[in-house]
Amino acid sequence: MSGKYRSLAALLLLPLLLASCIRLPSDGGDETGEGNGGDKKPPSYHENMTYQYQTEVDEDVLMTDLSAAYLVLANKSSPVGEDYTPEDLVALSSAVIASWHQATGLLLDACAAAALYEMLDEMRAAGVTDICVTSAYRSYARQQQLYETYLARELATISEDAYRALGYSYIKTNYLDAGKSKLSYADAARVVLSYSAYPGTSEHQTGLCVDFITDEMGGELTEAFEESAAFAWLSKNAYKFGFILRYPKGKEGVTGYTYEPWHYRFVGREAATDIYCSGLTLEQYLEK
Ligand SMILES: [Zn+2]
Questions:
Q1: d(CA 199, CA 26)
Q2: β-pair partners for 234
Q3: If you measure from the C-alpha of residue 137 to the centroid of ligand 1, how many angstroms do you get, rounded to a whole number?
Q4: Among residues 37, 42, 45, 40, which one has the least CA distance to residue 17?
Q5: pLDDT tens per residue, range 183-197
Q6: Could you tell me which of 50, 90, 195, 229 has the fewest CB atoms within 10 Å of its CB?
């Protein structure tokens, strides 16, 4: 089948795929209703899913056994700690990493890296080429260094991030009206923690997630990523490769992070499908 007809066939199959995605798990009938805490079984949308790919995808690399290793949780209330180092890190191919990382390289879990390559190949086949990886594995020491750099920055001046994180009226009352031009240590830390992780709590320490960026963004990781063709493609397809949008819009209260359209986490295809189709965050999925 030519590429054109294959995409046409994929288009015709789309409603079917969406239908299988919104179908509730077959163990319905729970009187407490969905998501009320009565059902402890994780959703199992992947069982009814038919995956379609344009490229020759090695499906083995997308699947995990839903084991704890790929579902490790690293967040503010569940830190992995200083000693956590992933076992199987590999250097990412220079073809997929941002130009400013070419000299030092980036590391990622081997399985996540293999799935990432399959995903980027498929994305390229769909005509989306402006995308690369700007962060992957980050050690505890590196996160500590970043945290301290950001803290120094927030202590130096009241930034746009400070207004976003603390609110204009808070800053006006406590700083501007009081003639202060610099944040207190506690407020500066609050601002930093709204966009960066405290050492030991970053998901990047697991080696299972990446931050994407496009050339068009000029090296700055911002919500502009949401406007990219890459984001549009990822929003529909990342789960088929085992990746989830980790910090979705409107879920700040659960994840502890503001919306990050660029941050994708590998959990394996089954869990990613269940999380994508149910609209849960990783925290909520693991709680079930
Ligand atoms: Zn990230």
A1: 41
A2: none
A3: 9
A4: 45
A5: 999 999 999 998 888
A6: 50
Q: For 60-83, write each residue's pLDDT tens digit.
A: 899 887 777 899 999 989 999 999
Give, in order, the Cα–Cα distances in Å from 185 to each of 77, 230, 240: 21, 38, 43
- Active-site annotation holds for 260: yes
Question: What pTM was estimated for this model as a whole?
Answer: 0.80
CB 248 within 8 A of CB 264: no
Asked whether the beta carbons of 56 and 117 are under 8 A apart, the reply is no
Q: Which of 47, 260, 283, 287 is catalytic?
A: 260
| Beta carbons of 250 and 281 less than 8 angstroms apart | no
Tokens matching residue 202: 């970053």
Cα of 286 from ligand 1 centre, angstroms: 20
Residues of the chain with CATH 3.30.1380.10: 44-137+205-287
Helix and strand numbers, DSSP H then E, in the chain: 10, 6
In 159-174, which positions are buried (b, 16+ CB within 10 angstroms) versus exposed (e)? eebbeebbeeeebeee
